[in-house]
Design a protein that fits this description.
It contains 14 helices and eleven strands. By secondary structure, the protein is an alpha+beta fold. The strands form two sheets. Strands 3, 4, 5, 6, 7, 8 and 9 form a seven-stranded mixed beta sheet that branches. It has a four-stranded antiparallel beta sheet with strand order 2-10-1-11. Helix 2 packs parallel to helix 10. The protein is elongated.
């Protein structure tokens, strides 16, 4: 039966075009929801890491959790000196940041104002101009400077306190949905009383090329304990810091993905109806062929397996096509938002689930038509049939069933608004029930 299914797909591919398109659209919607949101979330997390520069390790020293505990008198300079003495450490520097809302001649934007790191740690490249050296000088990414309408030598003004910066340089930082990063000289934080010279805060650390990452993390923790053993120290790689930054924004970004999944569920239900209709028509046209297979010894179960194998292959092809469409869509969105600078993020587990759903929906939709058209007797299948058009009325049972589906879906949707973690699956089921009720009520 596998050979029979493959032969049908090979010699009559046009018959399955509608099914292929239905699966591709349904799965493409679901996969695009995952790929686009994952790509944007990755870009936003990368944007948050820009102040750390080209660091290998990020050292965080937290304030005491107990308000009755005395704060350490250790200074940032003492911590930097201790870290620098660790074998394998090339350079270390404190990371100073603050927030600002600025406006230029043609727009406004929120900025993460970050202090300049030593040259070995800088992750951004200067396109033109120069790096800031005075307290109220700033460097911005090209996209941010263009959106604000400011050129090198132009001024930006704080929305809240009227503070001004002069743009001295333009970097290669990409545009982002989560605001921009502006680089200032460390003297800015001292001049505006924003500089905290205590040990608390974060530090970027660059390791020598051959340094062992795990050994360096342990040695840095021990070195800072030598400065003050009461300091709460954590040392993470930049990749671990990225994971933490990405998880901090999971709720906002994933909420959008879940909303889109609701519409994807509706698309899948509609797609299954299209697939079921397509297979009903295809199998009706293959009535004689099925009769011949039955006549030469194939039983109904074997013929059904052949049909369901065809459905599985079509579902797999359509789902893969849908995933490809989702990647193209993610690239298009990334070009618009600037996230493409960091590449396309592919959530492989979610994409694998989407492909599995594509195959399952196709097989499930083809199951009932295959049962109807393969359970007939061989001689009946070979007998000529007249084409009769029957106008069927909607029966009372069908009206009742569709009404119950719509009402039940509406009630579940109302309850979903009041639920917490279970709101998403309940909303998905509600959307499916309402969609089925409306579609099955149609003549």
């Amino acid at each position: 039966m596998l050979r029979t299914a493959l032969r049908e797909l090979r010699y009559h591919p046009g018959r399955y075009l509608a099914t292929l398109i239905a699966v591709a659209i349904s799965i493409g919607f679901m996969a695009a929801s995952s790929v686009v949101t994952s790509t944007e979330k990755t870009a936003m997390a990368r944007q948050q890491l820009l102040p750390y520069g080209d660091a290998d390790l990020v050292v965080s020293i937290d304030y005491p959790r107990d308000p009755l505990q005395d704060e350490s008198e250790a200074t940032a300079d003492a911590v930097v000196a201790a870290i620098t003495k660790v074998p394998g450490v090339s350079v270390a520097a404190p990371v100073h940041t603050s927030g600002a809302a600025v406006k230029g001649p043609s727009g406004s934007n929120t900025l993460t104002v970050a202090g300049m790191l030593p040259e070995q740690l800088r992750g951004s490249t200067l396109r033109y101009g120069r790096w800031p050296t005075a307290p109220h000088e700033i460097a911005l990414g090209a996209a941010s400077a263009e959106a604000l309408g400011v050129n090198v030598g132009g001024e930006l003004q704080s929305v809240f306190d009227g503070e001004t910066w002069t743009l001295t340089g333009v970097t290669d930082d990409p545009k982002s949905l989560s605001g921009a990063v502006g680089y200032v000289a460390d003297s800015y934080f001292a001049a505006t009383d924003r500089l905290d010279d205590s040990a608390y805060g974060t530090y970027s650390v660059k390791l020598a090329h051959a340094a062992n990452m795990a050994a360096a993390k342990a040695a840095i923790t021990a070195a800072i304990a030598g400065v003050d053993s009461d300091l709460d120290v954590s040392v993470a790689t930049l990749a671990e810091q990225f994971t933490q930054a990405a998880s901090s924004m999971t709720g906002d970004v994933d909420a959008l993905k879940y909303v889109l999944w609701v519409f994807a569920t509706i698309s899948i239900v509609v797609g299954m109806i299209t697939i079921a209709n397509t297979f009903t028509i295809l199998l009706a046209g293959r009535r004689r062929q099925i009769g011949l297979l039955r006549a030469i010894g194939a039983d109904g179960a074997q013929v059904r397996r052949s049909v369901l194998l065809e459905a599985a292959f079509i579902g797999l092809a359509g789902a893969c096509l849908g995933v490809g469409i989702s990647v193209v869509l993610a690239v298009a969105v990334g070009l618009y938002t600037g996230s493409i600078h960091w590449g396309v993020s592919l959530p492989w587990l979610e994409l694998a689930v989407a492909i599995g759903i594509g195959m399952a929906m196709t097989v499930a939709a083809a199951f009932l038509p295959s049962m109807r058209n393969t359970s007939i007797a061989p001689m009946e299948a070979l007998r000529p049939t007249d084409s009769v058009v029957v106008q069927r009325r909607i029966g009372a049972f069908r009206k009742l069933a569709c009404s119950l589906l719509v009402v039940g879906g509406g009630v579940m949707a109302w309850f979903a608004l009041k639920l917490g973690q279970l709101a998403l699956p309940v909303a998905l089921v509600a959307a499916a029930l309402i969609t089925l009720g409306v579609l099955f009520a149609a003549p």
